[in-house]
Structure formats: C-alpha cells, structure tokens
UniProtKB/TrEMBL annotation:
InterPro entries named among the record's database cross-references: AAA_GajA/Old/RecF-like, Bact_Antivir_Def_Nuclease, P-loop_NTPase, TOPRIM_OLD
Superkingdom to which the source organism belongs: Bacteria
Ranges where the Endonuclease GajA/Old nuclease/RecF-like AAA domain occurs: 1-370
GO molecular function ontology, one term from the record: endonuclease activity
Sorted UniProt keywords: Endonuclease, Hydrolase, Nuclease
Keyword Oxidoreductase: no
Domain OLD protein-like TOPRIM, residue spans: 434-506
Organism: Photobacterium sanguinicancri
The protein's name in its UniProt record: ATP-dependent endonuclease
C-alpha cells in the first residue's frame, strides 16, 4: 500500500501541482529538488497543515486568488477558492485493508485505488455575516482573521470533477479520526535547533533533550529493553532512602515532637524519565577529556540530530501501526561538509528499511546528496512562469522519453548514448546543474583557466548592457564538458536553464588518403569546408557530409547565420574579428592579443620557435601552427593568466565570440 499520486490545489505557489509516485518499485524515497522558492517547503507544509495543525491563513492562498477573497460576496464560489490536498492510494491483495476500507467505495475486484481529499474552505456565510458589522477596512479584517473562517473537511472522491459545485454530492465525507488511523506524518524541519558554543545556556542541550525523547519512546514500547537502567534506578532509590533517613532524622524528630506525627519519612522516588531529562547529557571525548555537546562542530551536531530524530520517529511509526507512514526531512545538508552528506544519504535508506508503509521525502539544495542518489528518485520542482504555478516533474522518466524513440534509427541510438552519458556525468561529475540559475559549458583547459578572468574583465570594463547584473554576482555554473555539450540539449530544455556553450569552429577540409579514402584534416577557417565539432553539428542540425545541403549549411555556420537552437541556449564559437576567423580558442585569442603577446614573449610559456615571432605575427594560423606547442596549450593559458594577474598594465582582450556570449548570458 502506498501513495501513488499527490495533487495540491490553491496553496501558495502550488496552484495546481501534481506529484507522480506511480512506480510501485520506486516510491519509498523521493528526492525533492529545485531552485530556491520553487515550492519544496510549501509542499511539505501543506501536509503538515492538513494532517497536524489544521490551521490556514490568508497568506496561504495563491496571489491570483487573494483579490477574489477580498471581494467575497454571495455570488462567490467558495469551492473554487478551496485549498485542497488529494491523495491516490494504491493497495494490493497482500495489504491489510482494515483502516483503508473506510475509504474504499468501489467494490470492483479489479479496482486497487482509494482516493482521499483534504479540503480547506472558507465559511462564506459566517464571514459575510461578520463583515456586515465591519464598517471600515474590511480588507484588513479578512487578512487578519480569515483563519477563523476556514474549515477543514475530509472526503472520498472518485474523479476531480466531483469537486465542481454541481457534482459535490458525489463526495463522501469522512472523519478526521478515520484519516488519523490510516496516515502517520512526521516532519524533521530545516530550522533545526542545533546551536554552537555561542548559544544561550538553555539552548545548548538539544541533543541531550533528544536522547531523553528517544528513551521515552522506548519506555512506551519495551520495558525489557530498559531492564538494566530500571534496576540501577531501584538500587539508587534504596541507597538514597537510607541516606535520607540519616540526614533528615533531626528534622523528623522535631516534627514528631511538635506535630505528633509518628509516621513521617523522606524516601527517594527516582523516575527514569526525570533522570534522563534532568541528569543526563551528551559529551564528546573519553578519560577526562570530555567536552559538552555544544563545543562540537555544527555539522556533527546536525547529523546526530537527524539520526536521533529519525530513531524517535521510527519508534512512533512502529508503535502506531498505521498503514501509511510519511517522513519528510528538510535540507539534511545544513552545516555539513560533502563527506558527511554522502554518508547521510548512503545510510538513510538502510536506516529506514523495514518500516511498514514508509514513504520518505527529502528536500535538498545539495548537489552532493543528489549525486549520491538514484536519479529515478528525483522529483524536480519548477515554476511555470506564465501560469505562476509550480510543477513537479519526474526527472528520470520524462527526460528518458526525450532521449529515447521507438523508431530506433541511428540518430535515436546516438540520443540513447547521450542519455547514458548524461546519467553517468551527473552521478560522477556534477549535479550542481540542477540548482544553477545559468550555465556556461566550456570545451577545454585553456577556456577553463581564462574564462573567470574574462568574466571579471567583462564586469570591470562594464561591457554588459545598462541594468544587467554583474556576471560575478550571478549564480552561474561553469563546467568543462569537452566535446560532449551535445549530450545536454534535452536536459537543458527540460530544466529550462539559460545556457551558454563556448566551443570551437574546428574547420576541416576534405582530402583523400593514399588508399583512396576520404579524410577530413584540420585546416584554417578561411579554407574549411567541413567541421569536426559534434556540438555544432548537433545543435544546428547538420546534414550528413555527403548530403546536397551540407555545403550551404557549412557556409551559414561560418557566417553565424543559423537560427539559435532555442531561446535559452546560445552556442558561441569563433566569428570574424578584425577580418580574421580562427578555428580554435588559441587562434582567436592570439589574433585579439598579438601585440601584447609580442611585448611579453619571453614570459609566455607553451611556445616553441619564439625567434619566428616576427614572421608569424601577421598570421594567427601560422603562429599557432609553428609556435604553439601542441602539448603546451595548458602552459600557454596558465602563463597568460599569470601575466594578467601579476602585471599592472597588462590586460588581455577576450575573443569577440566570448565577449558576445558573456553579454548574452548576462541578461
């Protein structure tokens, strides 16, 4: 038995949002990821409000509905304003349906889904009646007091059309107790009260407090497990009673003399719960080197906090015996370094194993946690800008469908290989792409070294348009992907992230080998007839080399006249600058900085035949061919960067295609 679908309506930015958990083999853990303010916390809060607090406020309604609420009248359809959480629950023959049977109305043996909805509606008649007595600022009255007029109800439904006014008679009301017998909700929130050594004394023992909670949860479940502790307390009771008798003997004698009380005694009455709460603490260290809990690092405290909380919730899940157990964990990465995040996410599934009907939801902004997870568990939150609504997308299934095709042609095979590469890249290399506001893909080591310098220079020189935010102040992920940028197209379209791809023209010329075979050898851009760059061919949909339209396609490529791959993707490669077009970064850079290279020739590494500079300085192609060591490109780039940072009066010019690309990504 498990929740297979969640639909949320009219709650904050979750105006109409669906989470699919249909996969019966993969619904135990869901990783909720997305950019800031994409609705992850709201998703958790709506569960808390319906299953715990049952309290809603004016600010919980979407912005698009607030005007209707403020203009409430007899004609208003209050059900169209309702906040709603609807759950589809799948069950099988192996499940005990005692609690779920309250929600099963379809007796068809082939049916295996029960549907429950929680609905928060405005009590229109009561609110309008009270508004009649409000003479001024009715809007403010509604904003401040709306929570008093919201009623929470529970229904069984068959179709979402049942919530329409004309079909609401199809809804079957249920009691809160029926829901409570079926679903158990636990939330470990992001605002965890772990504190450092500068906290107030009363706030410094959160872990010790949790050990007490853990102990108390065990007391409820098993006394045998605590036999050793209880025996020690009984023994201490006896010893303390004997000591109390000797210590209080004079006082008791006076009581007998003055009051005539002959049976007055002082005895010990230790309670295990009180002993744990008031006389136990967590420390670090051994053999006299113990330190209090608040003097340990916040990262360790946070992980210990999570582990203790999870153990406490596990005990409650097991004791309550409900059929559906929901555990939400918000941002487990708080205060922790990557290794601790890896350990946590590696162990969490094992830690929670064996709890009946458990579905765990972890929200995170950590690329390290995403990296260690199964991508089939990812649910990606994205705001639909045109509709001001959050959608939750099944990352793996939806993205795989974009890369796969039933026709199984050669192109489709390539796309499937791209998907396989992408899956491995995000696991091994970088999951930060999920959280990036913008992305820049670069091809090689030279660009990787020098692009941060170009970006800083771009901001310093004010090359962006008026009103643009400085590039150095934007959340831009820069990743070196080599020639594999082509594998990311569907991924970028899926996440709708603005992306700049910096690559090379890589011109080649068709030749014939000694054996009569066609070969394509690298050549200067001005005589190039083809390109070896798979990224350019992929994004600009190149014909095959032998096709009739390839020559025209190649001309448009060199002229930069192809249409952009998409509004959110720009491919930047060498263009004509001062009458010259290079085929690679090095040639374009040399062309834009030949005079400065000559002035600092002795300090530029990665070069050979420096005595030929005068012969090569008017021809960047010749410079790269005869002077740049093919194995020295990284040395060349690193020395260029060193000179830029160490010489006050030296400033390198970025090639024009990089400058234009940065100007585009800055917007």
């Amino acid at each position: 038995m498990h929740i297979s679908n969640v639909r949320i309506q009219n709650f904050r930015q979750l105006k109409d949002t669906t989470l699919d958990l249909e996969d019966e083999l993969n619904n135990e853990l869901s990783l909720l990821i997305g950019k800031n303010n994409s609705g992850k916390t709201s998703f958790i809060v709506v569960f808390e409000k319906f299953l715990k607090s049952r309290k809603f406020y004016y600010d919980d309604f979407p912005l698009s509905l607030r005007e209707d609420i403020l203009k409430l009248s007899e004609k208003t359809d209050e059900y169209s304003l309702a906040i709603r959480l609807s759950l589809s629950i799948k069950y099988g023959e192996e499940d005990n349906l005692q609690n779920l049977s309250e929600f099963i109305v379809d007796l068809d043996p082939k049916s295996n889904t029960a549907r429950i909805s929680f609905e928060a509606t405005i009590n229109k008649s009561k609110l309008l009646k009270d508004l009649d007595a409000v003479t001024k600022r009715k809007d403010e009255f509604i904003k401040k007091n709306l929570s008093d007029y919201i009623q929470v109800r529970y229904y069984i439904f068959d179709n979402f059309s049942d919530f329409e006014p004309k079909h609401r008679s199809n809804l079957i009301p249920k009691d809160a107790s029926d829901v409570n017998n079926l679903i158990n909700l636990k939330i470990i929130q992001a605002n965890r009260n772990v504190t450092s050594s500068d906290a107030k004394p009363q706030d410094r023992k959160i872990l010790s407090y949790l050990t007490t909670q853990f102990y108390n949860s065990k007391v409820k479940v098993s006394h045998d497990e605590l036999d050793g502790i209880n025996s020690s307390i009984i023994e201490a009771d006896s010893q303390l009673s004997s000591n109390y008798k000797a210590f209080f003997s004079p006082f008791l004698q006076n009581a007998k003399s003055f009051l005539g009380l002959t049976d007055l005694n002082v005895v010990s009455d230790l309670q295990s719960k009180e002993v744990m709460a008031s006389h136990s603490k967590i420390t670090y260290g051994i053999n006299g080197t113990e330190l209090p809990e608040h003097q340990n690092g916040l990262g360790y405290m946070n992980i210990l906090y999570l582990l203790l909380n999870i153990e406490i919730e596990k005990a409650d899940f097991e004791e309550s015996g409900r059929d559906i157990n929901l555990l939400f964990i918000e941002e487990p990465e708080a205060h922790t370094h990557p290794q601790l995040q890896y350990v946590f996410i590696d162990q969490i599934t094992e830690t929670l194993k064996g709890i009946k009907g458990l579905q765990t939801f972890i929200s995170t902004h950590s690329a390290h946690i995403v990296k260690k997870c199964n991508f089939k568990d990812i649910r990606y939150f994205r705001i639909q800008k045109d509709e001001a609504n959050t959608e939750i997308r099944n990352f793996y299934i939806e993205l795989q469908a974009r890369y796969a095709d039933e026709r199984n042609t050669d192109i489709d095979k390539v796309e499937k290989e791209n998907f396989k590469f992408l899956n491995q890249y995000l696991t091994i290399e970088s999951s930060e792409l999920f959280f990036a506001e913008k992305i820049i893909f670069i091809e090689g080591t030279s660009e990787k070294m020098l692009l941060p310098y170009f970006i800083n220079q771009f901001d310093t020189d004010g090359l962006g348009d008026k009103g643009d935010i400085a590039l150095t102040s934007q959340n831009i992920s820069i990743l070196e992907v080599g020639a594999n940028a082509k594998a990311f197209k569907h991924f970028l379209d899926f996440l709708e992230i603005k992306t700049l791809i910096i690559t090379d023209l890589d011109t080649t010329k068709e030749c014939e080998s000694e054996k009569g075979r066609k070969t394509y050898n690298a050549c200067a851009a001005k005589i190039g007839t083809h390109t070896s760059n798979g990224t350019l061919r992929h994004y600009y949909k190149s014909p095959e080399f032998g096709d009739k339209g390839f020559s025209a396609w190649m001309d448009k490529l060199k002229e930069h006249s192809h249409d952009a791959p998409s509004p959110l993707i720009k491919v930047a490669y060498q263009d004509v600058q001062d009458g010259y077009q290079g085929r690679s970064f090095e040639e374009a850079f040399v062309s834009a900085n030949m005079d400065s290279i000559g002035s600092n020739l002795d300090d530029v590494d990665g070069l050979k035949n420096k005595d030929k500079f005068d012969d090569c300085k008017s021809d960047p192609d010749k410079f790269v061919e005869e002077m740049l060591d093919s194995k020295g490109k990284s040395s060349f780039a690193s020395s260029i960067l060193y000179l830029a940072l160490s010489k006050d009066n030296l400033k390198w010019n970025p090639p024009s295609y990089i400058k234009e690309g940065l100007k585009w990504i800055a917007k």
